[in-house]
Here is the input.
Amino acid sequence: MNRIYFGDNLRILRSLHDETVDLIYIDPPFNTGKTQKHTKIKAVKSKNGSRVGFKGNTYQTIELGTKAYQDSFEFSSQGLGSRASSLELAYKSLAPNASIYYLEDFLRPRLLEARRVLKPHGSLYFHIDYREVHYCKILLDQVFGRECFLNEIIWAYDYGGRARSKWPAKHDNILFYVKDPKNYIFNTGAIDRESYKAPNLVGSEKAKRGKLPTDTWFPEYVGTKGKESDSWWLSYLSKGTNSAIWQTIVPTGSKERVGYPTQKPRGLIDRIIKASSLPGNVVLDFFAGSGTVGESCLELNRSFILIDNNKEALEVMAQRFSKVENIKWVNYKPKPHQKKTVIKDIEKKNKTPKISQEFLLLATTASYIQKDLQENSDYWKDSPFEWVLQLPARKKGKLGRQLLSPWLASKGILVESSKDTSETLIIKGHRVAIKFSTMWGKGFYRFQQIRSVGYDYVICLGIAPLEAHCWIFPREHIIRYATQQHKGSNEYWIPIYPNNPPDWAKGWGGSMDDVFKIIKKLGSK
Here is the structure.
C-alpha cells in the first residue's frame, strides 16, 4: 500500500520500522535564505492593462494564487549540549554561511533515521545545491561512512536568469550513498542511455544501443526518448541553443507542471528509481513536495512513502493523485482538493512477482561484480541481470561461481576453490560443478557443457528477469537424464522448465532455499 503522510518528517520517520525501505530520494530545503514560491497568473483583456499583446490589445495580469515555503534556517545551538561551543566555533570559522542548525539540528537526525530504515542493500540520493553540498557531504560521510559514498552526480541545466557578477551557477548536486558498498542495487540495463557523439566509430549495434550516462547528467539524455519527449522541451531546443541543458524547475509551459515551486522533472526521478530499485521495491521521499517520486513509482511498478509538512504540497499531491485508489493518506483528507479530471489513473501494466530475499542477494552481488565482467530484449527490461545476456558462455560460468560462493558463505557454508580446475568448487569436501543459465524466451533454462566426469555434484543456477531458480544433482543422476551435446562427446545438456519441472528433477531443488537445505544435509567427504 502506498502512503502519503502530512506532518513532521522526523517524527514520522521514527515511527517507521527498521530496514523497510529499498531506496530514498530526498530534495531537502537548500538553505538559500529565500522564500521559494510559484505564482499562477492569468492575463485578461483590459483597457487599463499595462501589458501590450496581439494587435496592440492591452492586458491586465491577475494573480490566481501562490504556493511557497521558507527556505532558510536561523543559527541555533539549542539541543547540542556540550558540543555547542566547539561546533559553533568550527562552523563560524570554516562555514560562516552554513547554518549549524540546518546541518546538526535539522539534517543530521533525519539522515540517521534514513539510514536506519534503509534495507541492507538500500541507497540514498541526496539532492542539494552548491551552497551547502560540501558541508552536507561531510555530514553524510559521518552518518553513512565515507566508504559508502559512490558518486556526486552533477545535474547541469541552463534555465532561469544569469548572474553578471560571477560565473552563473547552473547545476545541482546529487550525492549517491549506499548502506553497504558491496551489496547494493544498480540496474545498468534499466538506465536510459545516451547517444554516441561519433556513432560511425563504434559500429551500428553499439550506436543503436547507446552508451551509459556518466555522473554528469545533461538534458538531451535524461529520460527523453524521441516522441516521448516533452513537446515544450523539444521546442526550446529547436530555438538554436547549443548548450547542454536541462530545466532545474519544470518550466511554465511544460505538460508536467503541477504548480509547485522546485518541482523536479519526471525524467530525472525515473532515472534514479530505475537504476537503484527493482519492481515491487519501496521508495521513500520525506521532502515530497509535489509528489513526483510517487508518480514515477506508480508508472514503474514501485511502492512509495511520501512525507511533507507543507499543506500546499499535500494539496498539489491530492490533485495529482486524484484517481489513484491504492494510496493511504495519513493525517490528511485529500478529497476536498481532488478533481476527477486532474490525472489519468495509472495502472500497473504487468504483474510484479514477489522478489525473494535469495534473489535480491544475488542481484546485489551481480551489481557489485558487474564491472569486472561485462542481447537486450523487452523480456529482460528493468532486470538487474539484463547485462548478463551479453556475456560469452565462459564468463557466464564464472559469474555463476561468483554468485553462489558469497551466497553459500552468507549461509555459513564454507566454499573453497578447486586447486586443479577453476570450473569446480569444493563444498564440504565434495567437488561441485556450477552451471549457469538465463531463462530462455519460452520459459525454460538450458544448462550446457555438463561433463560426465570430474565432480561429485552439479549445481544448476538459473536466473529469470526477476526470479532465481536452483537445483543440485549427483553426477550419475544428471548424466542419466541429460542429452549428449555431440555424438561421441563427454559433455551433456539438460532443459528445465521451473514452472513444470520433469519428474527426475523433483526433490533436488527448485529454489535457492531448497538447494541450501540439501547442501546442509550433505555429509562431509
